[in-house]
């Protein structure tokens, strides 16, 4: 198979159109030399953790500890490792970088401006993710098309120009109902905060429960406009949303 790169990504997007989540994970497991599954421990990623654990491929699983997570998220890391038999590698932000940022802008800088919020996400998430993906030729994550206005045009595989590798989205066509049904049917552990109205769970200080009928991502960075709500993990270096470019 040709190496997946920025120029031929469109062909792979066409080839994977309509593929099941299993098939997309298998495709990544078979065709990448060093795939990585990066999990945020959200409901979608718990589905993928189950698929990866049962795939028969050795796909290292990593997560980011930003230092600002909910205690229940740490419990979920432990229960997922135990129940699914996964060894979840944890990437931490660089201590010097965090200290400098907090010294310059304060511990809650993300409330000051979008620029400061993005800086915080960069230091606590993007840089550790970049380090974790070094040497990898593709990563897997749990994005779904209907999660946010910024994700409506995404495909099963996208070019992640920030990291210079393809990003696979096995659940791109799934609805939230599909995700929740899968977790229940397969008895996969998930964060109990989801049952308390937390649709999308990230750092405790930047996540809140949503009301019935609100957009799924209304509980993340609720002080910003919907178009600006990406954590940076799925942005290109120029600030555009990571897709086939
Ligand atoms: Fe910082 Fe909030 Fe981003 Fe977490 S979600 S890295 S606390 S801005």
What does the model show?
The chain has 245 residues and is of the alpha/beta class. It has a single domain, classed as 3-Layer(aba) Sandwich (Rossmann fold). The protein is 34% helix and 10% strand. It has helices at 9-15, 21-31, 43-53, 71-84, 95-105, 114-133, 176-185; strands spanning 35-39, 61-64, 88-91, 138-140, 157-160, 165-168. The chain has a six-stranded mixed sheet with strand order 3-2-1-4-6-5. Strand 2, helix 4 and strand 3 form a beta-alpha-beta unit. The longest helix is centred in the middle third of the chain and has 20 residues, at 114-133. It is globular. The two termini are 21 Å apart.
Count every helix, treating DSSP H or I runs of 4 or more residues as helices.
7
Give, in spatial order, the strands making up the sheet with the most strands.
Answer: 3-2-1-4-6-5
Mean pLDDT: 90
Low-confidence stretches: 235-245
Task: Give the biggest beta sheet.
Answer: 6 strands, mixed
Q: What is the CATH H-level superfamily?
A: HUPs
- What ions, cofactors and ligands are bound? iron/sulfur cluster
Number of domains: 1
Strand content: 5-15%
Gap between N and C termini = 21 Å
Can you tell me the CATH topology?
Rossmann fold
Write the layout of secondary structure elements.
Blueprint: H1 9-15, H2 21-31, E1 35-39, H3 43-53, E2 61-64, H4 71-84, E3 88-91, H5 95-105, H6 114-133, E4 138-140, E5 157-160, E6 165-168, H7 176-185
Parallel strand pairs: 1-2, 1-4, 2-3, 4-6
Antiparallel strand pairs: 5-6
Helix pairs in contact: 3-7, 5-6
The chain binds iron/sulfur cluster.
